[in-house]
Amino acid sequence: MLTTYTAYDEIRAALGVAPEEITDDVLELPNYELVLSFDLEDMGDFDPTIEATFLTLSNTTTTPSPSVDEQRFISIVKVYSAYVIARHLLNSLSMFAVTRSIAAGRTSRRSSPRVIPQLTISAISGTSIANMCE
After folding, report:
1. Pick from 70, 44, 69: which is nearest to 55 by CA?
2. From CA 58, how far away is CA 52, in angstroms rounded?
3. What is the DSSP track for 83-134?
4. What letter would DSSP give residue 20?
5. What share of the chain is helix, strand, coil (3-state, %, to 5)?
6. Contacting residues for 131 by C-beta, under 8 A, at least 6 apart
7. Residue ranges of the domains in the chain?
8. Rounded to an integer, what distance in angstroms lies between the CA atom of residue 130 and that of residue 120?
9. What confidence tier does 44 reach under pLDDT thresholds 50, 70, 90?
10. pTM
């Protein structure tokens, strides 16, 4: 499962979207775990054991007390994993791009073409879509 590597909220945070915009059901699709697995395999030129090492170190049964360096490695892989999936989602993020407006005490949402070109910058810089639309 993808949650072995990163939390769904971490992926959404990297993109600046809300759980209503990219739901857990979407992130649970097997495609995203495959994308991450392929990306980690591509890093095999650097270290072919990255994925296996991560799975071993993050397993509290096999490694009940990871060292400081091991914990750092786990954290780096988790952050990297969130950004790999966020980068992959950028291809379809325009479907999730919305603006929010308040009218008569209600919040409404509509697609905003002016936001779409800025989404990549938003995801990289950590700016939320809601802040860009205000």
Report:
1. 70
2. 10
3. HHHHHHHGGGGGGT--EEEEETTEEEEE--TTTGGGHHHHHHHT--HHHHH-
4. T
5. 60, 5, 30
6. 16
7. 2-133
8. 14
9. confident
10. 0.69
